[in-house]
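User: Fold this; tokens only.

Assistant: Input:
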Amino acid sequence: MAMINPIEPILHPVEIDDLRPTQMTVGMTEVERKRADWRDRCNKDGGEYLGAHLLPAVTGPGGAYWIVDHHHLARALHDEGVEKVLVTVIAKLDHLPKRRFYSFLDRHNWLHPYDHEGRRCDWKDIPRHVAKLTDDPYRSLAGEVRRAGGFAKMPTPYTEFLWADFFRDRIGRKLVEDKFGKALEKALWLANGREAEYLPGFAGPEHGAAARDDSE
């Protein structure tokens, strides 16, 4: 992800209600995992956890903070009743007209206006609040495949969404929704095949175990 300005930490908390998403969906399985993790930690080292998980954002029209990553964490914290988080500003774009702003985000791969069926939508369709992010079960599937070592965690923006679309074309939605374990077995097999070689983080059968990464 190219940086426009040096990272500038915002040391005062920002209301989660004031954060604007730059994508339309999340994998709710991953959100639930992060909610459980927060419940385990909030009374022990919740402050340290939040301090170590700053959300990268750009400032847009009206001075709003648009988060360009960690949407799952933002949604999980919101659903757990957390009101404020810390953000890191990676670009100040509040001087741009709204259409130019969205175009800039799109060109820098900081925008993912795709719905739960993988269809590209207009930027106006992006929800205005993290609570409005909808579930894409294929994004959940991609996240579980990565955790199981099917592909490596990469800095490429929206890596898991690229894998989600790959699985979307090859695994029926009913199987994903009704028999997630079976879908995961098939997805892991597909992730090791030649058709997946073009995707970021491709590990292949000989590297799959080394790709495992349980850190989030």
